[in-house]
Specification:
The chain is of the alpha/beta class. The chain has helices at residues 17-28, 41-47, 105-114; strands at residues 10-13, 31-38, 53-61, 68-77, 97-101, 124-128, 131-139, 145-150. It is globular, with a radius of gyration of 17 Å.
């Protein structure tokens, strides 16, 4: 059987590329490492959306072997339906993207809440397999759910 070597990136489709790039840089601390524009028929076939024209950006956190990547896509055409920010976490599908932290969840929560970021709750603490884990969920500008998680 063929094997997978790792997770390359996650992707979020956004309604406004410039707003989202700025938000993910300023609020989460990611940096834009590449940007692209696609208007090619083979991509339309590949993503299953005829007539695709899109803007994209790859954002990165970390360096060297400790890199995490997040791709942002904005479909210039055809435009997609807006994400329902009230989609509950128990719906089937990809429900959130999680960012790891080291003992910084309370500080991140306070900082981002003061900047107007909408959280689903204050940081919560649970025990999983004998390890104490802290987490909190929040929303990006399009209402996509994100999470901070750590010890």
């Amino acid at each position: 059987m063929a094997s997978i070597s790792g997770l390359h990136h996650g992707c979020i489709t956004v309604s406004d590329m410039e707003r989202s790039k700025k938000w993910y840089q300023e609020m989460i601390g990611l940096k834009v490492v590449s940007e692209f524009y696609v208007d090619m028929p083979e991509v339309s076939v590949g993503v299953g959306v005829p007539g695709t024209k899109l803007q994209g950006a790859m954002l990165q956190f970390g360096d060297g072997e400790q890199v995490s990547m997040l791709e942002l896509l904005h479909y210039v055409s055809p435009a997609g339906k807006p994400w329902d920010p009230e989609t509950p976490m128990n719906n089937i599908g990809c429900t959130h993207v999680a960012f790891a932290t080291d003992n910084a969840i309370d500080a991140l929560y306070e900082e981002l809440a003061a900047k107007g970021v909408r959280f689903l709750s204050p940081p919560q603490t649970i025990e999983l397999d004998g390890q104490v884990v802290k987490f909190c969920y929040f929303k990006d500008p399009d209402g996509v759910t994100l999470e901070f998680i750590g010890t």
